[in-house]
């Protein structure tokens, strides 16, 4: 018996990089995941992302319904459209997950993040920092003669922009909460 | 009715209420209260295995051969870590299991106590779900919920970790029917999608059913409906390794297993079809081969209960989320109501083409000379056992593939094999689990000598419980599948793929009080097999076979279905380039 149609050493392909022709543009999506507030549920979600090699750009979690025992995890993730679909399906099959919403595709949504910035400096820099903070509607929540802590809320882009401006003015430390998001309009 | 009882008693009570008859386990300090309760009742039989891995595989064999969940009970720390391979195996093959582990008392958790391990942490990625129960009052409800989760939707293993103080303390027993659950996966498929599939079936010229383990998971009704659908349409049907038996091998439309070591006709049909109907299979890489060359010209439908299986590797045109039996029932109704149409002319041409492929006779081999060919051994085993009430388990390797190719399965739940994880050491304990469920059946584990040695300690279990499991070892004195890959891929450099220093299997059997048979002569094989079948007790059958036989057909990694290797004479350079990196 002999092999049929086999071209010897013909392929230079690997099955792993031969996904069919989905769009391979990387998209960023914000997912709202309503979960049972059980011990280990966050570990399950994070373990899913690390175990299957998905990206986490931002993650926040807190109880949102004490009586109903529910927490909301907001995850910003990125990947090809096919990977995003997989992530949603994989999240959906976790037993403790009640609901997965893709805020990026399910109509308009509001995204906000809170950040604290520690900036130290004297003279001109100090004045410039306060001036910029004012433009960005950041509040001063702590101050010494040589430093400020600014509190700022906004989209992640706004916070990134603020960080860039603070950098040359003596930025010491940033603490960011990660994104919280809700779809716009009535439920 | 609620009742007060200790946690340990709740465990036993919940198992009884859930209809459990057999528990496979191994005791230790952290589960002693539960063992004490087991001692004081007669409803549940406990099978003492010789290694916790064996307990979990035995529970898998029990589950797969009955359709009921399997139950295992092990102690904390090393007991739990020994169960990890079995849990992972069950997760990949969608086998419903309830594994109970003991844990150090709640007030010692986190203190590196004796035999403490973070069991829920370790097993989180290898269970469908797991729980650490810290209050006795919640224990019964959790146990009932565990059975529900393990058996609903896509089945899988679950684990409950029970600290010792929770076992000792008294609490209120919750009845199963009082337990509320939010976990209720969708079983009915979308009717529009089902209608779309029915329409596609009416016009398809080259349709093929590609069925998988999901049909077995769905239960006997699913296999029945599948048979009806295939008979009514006359479409050819192939199956994955995991789905064998859902449609009978003797059925008119059966074209054999597909995939890496599947039949030529099945793979060619998959490659050339114009309508592929995937029923409960997951486009595994053993099936698809090179993805960009996978069935390039077909419309694809996929029936699966797990949304994450759909569009995971292969994009499908008609996704149907639901349980196989439910969807097939609706599909049959819709297709019948629309007039039971198929493209008769197209189909008849398609069958002519398939019959041409069949004529290649890809499983032919020559048994000549004085050395038993493994294929021949299985052919004789099939011939001599097919009329029996027979269950087959396997280990992992070439023998497993030959068993899939040369044994024929007429019914579901008769074939237990480790497909997804490919766990050497699975088959022997699994055969013990199967025999516990079917005491009068003929249970045979088709094994390789290397795999069999991985859980050989279970011979003690088989003896203790008088389980007449037949261990049919195709002994090639090689890690055969590894050796085959080294031959094809690594210039015949057989690095560590010799099974050296093998025991005398006959003496080994005798040391346990079992029967050992050795056979090396093709002419003596039938008598030896008959001796194995008729012996009332466990048998270790050492079948000495051709050492360097390769398993064909084979689609080399990274190749397309129509680039299949059929025999030894054309394998040089078969796997080159990036295909080498694949497993
Ligand atoms: C050495 C070796 C070689 C192998 N070679 C081959 C080979 O040549 N051919 C081959 O086929 N396999 C082979 N395998 C096995 C392979 O690795 C996979 O395990 C197997 O192909 C998967 O089978 P499946 O697609 O039927 O999926 P399974 O793993 O059985 O998964 C079942 C699918 O059905 C779904 N499902 C479950 N329950 C239901 C339900 N009630 N309703 C609807 N859907 C449901 C699940 O969500 C899942 O998607 C080999 C394994 C080994 C170890
Ligand atoms: C636990 C485990 N370790 C390693 C492997 C890799 N492996 C796959 S097949 C095989 C050889 C099996 O040899 P044997 O049981 O003698 O069967 P044969 O292939 O010779 O029929 C090995 C080592 C595996 N599948 N499982």
What key attributes describe this structure?
heterodimer; A: Alpha-Beta Plaits; Alpha-Beta Plaits; 2 domains; five-stranded antiparallel sheet; four-stranded antiparallel sheet; disordered N terminus; B: 583 residues; Rossmann fold; 3 domains; six-stranded parallel sheet; 20 strands; 37% helix; 17% strand; binds flavin-adenine dinucleotide
- Overall, the morphology of chain B is globular
Question: Main sheet of chain B: which strands, in order across?
Answer: 3-2-4-5-7-6
DSSP, total strands of chain B: 20
Q: What's the CATH first level of the largest domain in chain A?
A: Alpha Beta
| Strand composition percent of chain B | 15-25%
What's the number of helices of chain A? 4
- Please give the share of residues in helix of chain A: 25-40%
Measured as a percent range, the helix fraction of chain B is 25-40%
Q: Assign the CATH superfamily of the largest domain in chain A.
A: ACT domain
CATH architecture label name of the largest domain in chain B: 3-Layer(aba) Sandwich
Beta-strand content bin of chain A: 35-45%
List the domain count of chain A as a whole number: 2
First-residue to last-residue Cα separation of chain A: 66 Å
Query: Can you identify the CATH superfamily of the largest domain in chain B?
Result: Thiamin diphosphate (ThDP)-binding fold, Pyr/PP domains
Largest sheet of chain A: 5 strands, antiparallel
N- and C-termini, Cα separation of chain B: 55 Å
InterPro entries (chain B): Acetolactate_synth_lsu, AHAS_TPP, DHS-like_NAD/FAD-binding_dom, THDP-binding, Thiamin_PyroP_enz_cen_dom, Thiamin_PyroP_enz_TPP-bd_dom, TPP_enz, TPP_enzyme_TPP-bd
Domain Thiamine pyrophosphate enzyme central (chain B): 194-331
Enzyme class (chain B): transferase
Protein name (chain B): Acetolactate synthase
In brief:
With 187 residues, chain A is of the alpha+beta class. Chain A has helices at 41-51, 81-92, 123-135, 156-166, and strands at 27-36, 58-65, 70-79, 97-102, 109-120, 139-143, 147-154, 171-176, 180-183.
